[in-house]
Design brief:
This protein is an alpha+beta fold. The chain is 55% helix and 15% strand. The chain folds into two domains: 6-170, Beta-Lactamase (2-Layer Sandwich), CATH 3.30.450; 177-231, Winged helix-like DNA-binding domain superfamily/Winged helix DNA-binding domain (Arc Repressor Mutant, subunit A, Orthogonal Bundle), CATH 1.10.10.10. It has ten helices and five strands. Helix 1 packs antiparallel against helix 2, helix 8 (186-200) packs across helix 9 (204-218) and helix 8 (186-200) packs across helix 10 (222-231). The N and C termini lie far apart (54 Å).
Length: 238
C-alpha cells in the first residue's frame, strides 16, 4: 500500500508555497507540484498535475515519468479516464486495479501495455471552480485506499489555491465568468447525468464520460452540454 503522508505533503506545500507565488510561468508551478507529490508517495510509479479548461482539455501539465504523460495523453485524446472523471465530478477517484475496472474501457485498453495497475486522482478545486486534477499511478494493484484519497484531496485544495493565484496573473486564456458559472452548476450536470443514465441504461460514470466527450466534440462547456440535454427532455405528463 502506498501510504500518502499528510505531514510530508504539508511540508512539501511549505517548501513550494513561496516558489509558486513568485513563478513566472504556470508550467513551472505544476512541475514543482508533481515532483512534491511523488516525493511524498513511497513507491509511486509516477505522478502528475494537469490544468484543464471548461471542456476538459489540457491547458498545462507536468509529469514525473513518461508513463504519466502516456496515460494522461490517452485520457485527453479519448475523452475518458480517472483524472477527467475526478475533474468533472469534482471528487476523488480511486482505481484499485486498472485491468479489472470497467469504467473507462477505451482508456483501459490504451494503457494496457503501461506499468499502471492502480490510480488515485483528486480534483483541483479553487473555490467553486475545478481547474484540473492531481494523479498518482502505481505499478501494483490495490495501492491506494480511501485514506489516500482524503490526503491527496487535502493537498489538492492548497495546490489549487496556489495555482489559481498564478493563473490569475499569468494565464491570458482565463475562462469567462459565464463559463465558470456554468461549470460550477453541478446540479445541472448531475440532472443531465441522470437523464443519460435512464435513457441509455448507463452508469453514472459512463454518462459523465459521454457528456465530457460530447463537450469536447462540440467545443462547448460541460455545463452547456448538460443544459442542452435537459432542455430536450419532454415535460412529464400530468
Amino acid at each position: 500500500m502506498n501510504y500518502l503522508s499528510l505531514d510530508d505533503l504539508t511540508a512539501a506545500v511549505a517548501r513550494i508555497r513561496g516558489l509558486l507565488l513568485t513563478q513566472e510561468k504556470v508550467d513551472n508551478a505544476v512541475a514543482l507540484l508533481a515532483q512534491a507529490i511523488k516525493e511524498s508517495t513511497p513507491g509511486a510509479a509516477g505522478t502528475g498535475v494537469s490544468l484543464l479548461d471548461w471542456a476538459g482539455r489540457q491547458t498545462s501539465s507536468s509529469f514525473t515519468d513518461v508513463l504519466v504523460k502516456q496515460a494522461d495523453t490517452a485520457q485527453y485524446e479519448l475523452g475518458e479516464g480517472p483524472c477527467l472523471t475526478a475533474w468533472a465530478a469534482e471528487d476523488v477517484v480511486l482505481v484499485d486495479d486498472v485491468q479489472a475496472d470497467g469504467r473507462w474501457p477505451a482508456w483501459t485498453s490504451a494503457v494496457a501495455a503501461l506499468p499502471i495497475r492502480s490510480v488515485v486522482s483528486a480534483p483541483l478545486l479553487a473555490g467553486k471552480e475545478a481547474i484540473g486534477a492531481l494523479k498518482i499511478y502505481s505499478a501494483l494493484p490495490g495501492q491506494f485506499d480511501a485514506n489516500s484519497g482524503r490526503v491527496l484531496s487535502l493537498f489538492a485544495g492548497t495546490a489549487a489555491t496556489l495555482l489559481a493565484h498564478i493563473q490569475g496573473k499569468e494565464t491570458p486564456q482565463r475562462m469567462t465568468e459565464e463559463l465558470k458559472a456554468t461549470l460550477a452548476s453541478r446540479d445541472t450536470i448531475n440532472r443531465a447525468c441522470g437523464i443519460s443514465m435512464e435513457r441509455h441504461g448507463m452508469s453514472q460514470d459512463q454518462a459523465l464520460q459521454r457528456m465530457i466527450r460530447d463537450a469536447r466534440d462540440a467545443g462547448a462547456s460541460l455545463g452547456r452540454i448538460s443544459e442542452k440535454l435537459i432542455t430536450k427532455v419532454p415535460p412529464a405528463e400530468r
